[in-house]
Design goal:
By secondary structure, the chain is of the alpha+beta class. The protein has helices at residues 31-38, 41-45, 96-105, 123-127, 169-172, 197-207, 213-227, 248-257, 275-281, 310-328, and strands at 4-9, 21-28, 49-52, 58-59, 64-71, 76-81, 85-91, 130-131, 134-135, 140-147, 153-156, 177-187, 235-239, 245-246, 263-265, 271-273, 288-289, 292-295, 298-304, 337-338. Helix 6 crosses helix 7. The mean pLDDT is 96.
C-alpha cells in the first residue's frame, strides 16, 4: 500500500503555481500499488478524488477536500514493429516532451509536432493534446486503463475513447478512469506535417523542403519558446481557451466585418477561429487584472504575475470571455480544467 500523506500543498504540483492544499495525496508508481489503494479505506472514504498528471492544465480554485492520486508510473519501450509502423509504449507518468524527444532519437518519427507541450504521457489523451496540425489521437494505437469503479484493467482502442477537439472519454468522465500507459503507432512512411505556415517557414529556413522529423521538432521548440512562457519561469497553464469553431454562415458574417480574421477550414465545413486573435482584438494582450494577465507575446495564455489565486484566474477568464462575447458574439470555452 503506497503512503497516503495528509494536508499536502499543491502549489508545486500545478504549473500555474496556484496555492491549494489536498486533504490527502498518494503517489502511484506501480499498478499493484494502485490496486492496493483501491481496496483501502482511504479510497472508499474519500469524498472526492482527483487523478493528477503533470498539473499543466489545471486551475485550482481552492483547497481540494478529497484524495489526490499523483500518477508516477514510469517506463517506455518498443513493443512491436512491422512494415507500416513502430509501436512504442510509455507509462502514464513519463514526461511528455522527454518521451517525444526519446522517440525521435531512436529514429521513430510521428510526434514531432507535439514537442515541448508540458505534461505527462497519461494526460495527453485526456485532453487530446494538439499543435501545428496534429492531434495525439492520430498516433495512438491503444491505451491501458484502470476503471476506478471496480479496479479492472482494460485495453482501449482510439475508437473507444470518444476523441474530439481537446476532448475525450476521460475528460467527459473525470474520476472514472486512470490511464496506466499509452501505445503509439509511429509511421515508417513518414511525411512532415507542415500545414501551418509559421511552422513551414521555420522548418524551410533551416532544412529546406525535405526536413527530418528531428528538424521539425526543433523548429516547433524554437517557435514555442519564442511565443509561450516557460512554466518554470512564470506560472501558466498553456493555451487557456479552446479555438472556437463556427459554422460557415457565422464565419462569413465575421469575415465581412473583420477581413483579417485568422481562420482554418474544417473537414465538416465549419471554420476554426484563433481564440488568441479574438482576445488580442479586445485589448488583452499584455494586459493584467491584478496578479493575472495575458502573456505579452500570446494573448491566449493567462499567466500568474505573482501571488495569484485560483479565484484571480476565474475573474480574469470571465472578464475576457465577456469582452469577446460582446465584441464578436462568440462564447469562448476554457481549455484549462477548473478544480
Amino acid at each position: 500500500m503506497p503512503v497516503v500523506r495528509r494536508d499536502v500543498a499543491l502549489d508545486a504540483l500545478n504549473t500555474f503555481r496556484l496555492p491549494a492544499r489536498a486533504a490527502q495525496l498518494v503517489v502511484i508508481d506501480t499498478l499493484s500499488g494502485l490496486q492496493a489503494l483501491l481496496q483501502n479505506e482511504c479510497w472508499q472514504a474519500a469524498p472526492r478524488r482527483l487523478v493528477l498528471g503533470g498539473g499543466s492544465n489545471l486551475v485550482f480554485t481552492g483547497d481540494f477536500s478529497g484524495l489526490v492520486v499523483k500518477v508516477g508510473l514510469r517506463g517506455r519501450q518498443l513493443v512491436g514493429e512491422d512494415e507500416q509502423c513502430w509501436r512504442v509504449a510509455a507509462a502514464a507518468g513519463e514526461n511528455w516532451h522527454d518521451f517525444v524527444r526519446w522517440t525521435l532519437a531512436q529514429g521513430w518519427p510521428g510526434l514531432e509536432n507535439l514537442s515541448l507541450i508540458p505534461g505527462t504521457v497519461g494526460a495527453a489523451p485526456v485532453q487530446n493534446i494538439g499543435a501545428y496540425g496534429l492531434e495525439v489521437a492520430e498516433r495512438i494505437d491503444s491505451l491501458t486503463v484502470v476503471d476506478l469503479q471496480d479496479g479492472r484493467l482494460h485495453r482501449l482502442l482510439p475508437a473507444d475513447c470518444a476523441f474530439g477537439y481537446r476532448d475525450s472519454l476521460f475528460k467527459r468522465q473525470p474520476g472514472r478512469w486512470l490511464i496506466a500507459s499509452v501505445c503509439f503507432r509511429l509511421p515508417r512512411s513518414w511525411q512532415p506535417r507542415l500545414d501551418y505556415a509559421e511552422l513551414a517557414r521555420e522548418v524551410q529556413a533551416v532544412a529546406g523542403m525535405a526536413p527530418t522529423a528531428l528538424q521539425v521538432s526543433e523548429a516547433v521548440i524554437r517557435i514555442r519558446r519564442r511565443k509561450l512562457p516557460d512554466p518554470a519561469e512564470i506560472g501558466n497553464a498553456g493555451s487557456f481557451f479552446k479555438n472556437p469553431v463556427v459554422d460557415a454562415a457565422a464565419f462569413a458574417r465575421l469575415a465581412a466585418r473583420w477581413p483579417g480574421l485568422p481562420h482554418y477550414p474544417q473537414p465538416d465545413g465549419r471554420v476554426k477561429l484563433a481564440a488568441g486573435w479574438l482576445i488580442e482584438q479586445c485589448g488583452w494582450k499584455g494586459r493584467n487584472l491584478g496578479p493575472v494577465g495575458c502573456f505579452e507575446r500570446q494573448a491566449l495564455v493567462l499567466v500568474n504575475r505573482g501571488g495569484a489565486t485560483g479565484q484571480d484566474v476565474v475573474r480574469a477568464a470571465n472578464l475576457i470571455r465577456a469582452e469577446v462575447r460582446a465584441r464578436f458574439g462568440i462564447e469562448l470555452e476554457a481549455e484549462a480544467v477548473f478544480v
